[in-house]
Amino acid sequence: MAISTAINTHCPSCDAARSSLIVCDDCRSLFPVPPTATYFDLFAIPTSFGLDDAALLAAYRSLTRRIHPDRFGGAGDDVGDLATRLSAQINEAYSVLSEPVRRADYMLTLAGGPSAAEVRDVPGNLLEEVMTLREEIDQARDDGDTEAIERHRDAITERKQLALEQLANHADRLDTCDDDERAGFRKRLNSIKYFDNLLTRLTTDPLAEADHR
Ligand SMILES: [Zn+2]
User: Fold this and answer.
1) How much distance in Å is there from the Cα of 25 to the middle of ligand 1?
2) Fewer CB within 10 Å, N or C, the chain?
3) How far is it, in rounded angstroms, from Cα 75 to Cα 184?
């Protein structure tokens, strides 16, 4: 994916070189997020799945501080409103980019999809496997078989990790993938939800669950 060069522009208010799309540190002007800007652009980091977590966090903290609505309280309602809106957008962008599954989903969206609504299935015969696993897990819980529960947890955690690695390996190439490959990427993303549900099933206390019925 092309790295945006949009931030290499000057502030329309004071003509200083800008290090951010949304704020000028010289004159403290704020700017709405440009419609074409991605979350990566907002933080001025390269568009890549394997982003540097520390760099992302540093960029997020820096930007949050520079556009904090409290700093623009006396600047008039419009500017205060813009600061509030920008803060919400920065928070959303950070929460998406800092979480690998949401980041992969976002990168697929940037590449043109498909969305989770458009492709709902999962790779191979995972659905049948999941049904079998559910039965085995419920049986293990009924039996109080902690060893079997541990074994399932390890195996499912490993499969989720593998799916994540495959997403990581393909995310940066999504814009050159054909429709079938991008559909495959969505299916793998869908599979993560099934693994998460199974892991939740493994950690939920059946007695506590029964109490809530
Ligand atoms: Zn400026």
Assistant:
1) 7
2) C
3) 49
Q: How far from 51 is each of 37, 47, 103, 108, 202, CA to CA, in Å?
A: 17, 8, 10, 16, 31
Distance 35 CA to ligand 1 centre (A): 20
Å from CA of 31 to ligand 1 middle: 10
Q: What Cα–Cα distance (Å) separates residue 1 from each residue in 47, 49, 108, 175?
A: 7, 11, 12, 7
Ligand 1 centre to CA of 17 (Å) is: 8
pTM for this prediction = 0.88
How far does the centroid of ligand 1 lie from the alpha carbon of residue 24, in Å?
5
Measured in Å, residue 37 CA sits from the centre of ligand 1 at 19
Domain limits of the chain? 1-98, 126-211
Q: How far is the CA of 30 from the centre of ligand 1 (A)?
A: 9
Q: Measuring CA to CA, which residue among 22, 19, 46, 33 is closest to residue 172?
A: 46
Kindly give the distance from the C-alpha atom of residue 22 to the centroid of ligand 1, in angstroms, as a whole number. 11
Domain 1-98 has CATH 1.10.287.110: yes
